[in-house]
Design goal:
The longest helix has 14 residues, at about 55-70. This protein is mainly alpha-helical. The radius of gyration is 12 Å and the shape is globular. Helices cover about 35% and strands about 0% of the residues. α2 packs across α3 (about 55-70). The termini are far apart. The chain has helices at about 1-10, 35-40, 55-70. It has 3 helices and no strands. The structure holds heme C. Heme C (HEC) binds near residues 18, 20, 39 and 48.
Length: about 80
């Protein structure tokens, strides 16, 4: 996860970029797998650039699985579980 931890922290606790393990999303679409993939692939704002230059699609899916795994927020907000 070296490509992400520089900005998001080794435990995804947040650093230059926002924490990814809590239940707050800047972008609500990240609650769905499709939205999260689009954000990772195409990038967000500021330093969060498109990640397709660094990772293959397969690696991207692994990263998504990792993000879902470290999620610590309210399970009711974990929409991807019910979709
Ligand atoms: C160069 C620093 C940097 C790197 C490297 C980086 N990010 Fe980010 N990331 C950011 C910043 C800054 C934001 C906030 C962007 C915004 O608000 O538009 C962000 C936003 C995000 C978001 C949206 C969070 C939300 O609350 O909606 C996700 C998900 C994310 N990053 C995942 C990743 C993953 C996974 C990687 C590795 C593949 C990664 N980032 C690599 C800086 C970085």
């Amino acid at each position: 996860m070296t490509g992400c931890s520089g900005c998001h922290g080794h435990e995804a606790e947040g650093k230059l970029g926002p924490g990814l393990a809590d239940d707050y999303w800047t972008y609500p679409r990240n609650a769905t797998d499709q939205g999260l993939f689009e954000l990772l692939f195409g990038g967000a704002n500021g330093m969060m650039g498109p990640q397709y230059v660094n990772f293959t699609t397969d690696e991207m899916l692994h990263i998504m699985a990792f993000i879902r795994d470290i999620y610590q927020g309210d399970p009711k907000k974990a929409k991807w579980l019910t979709q």
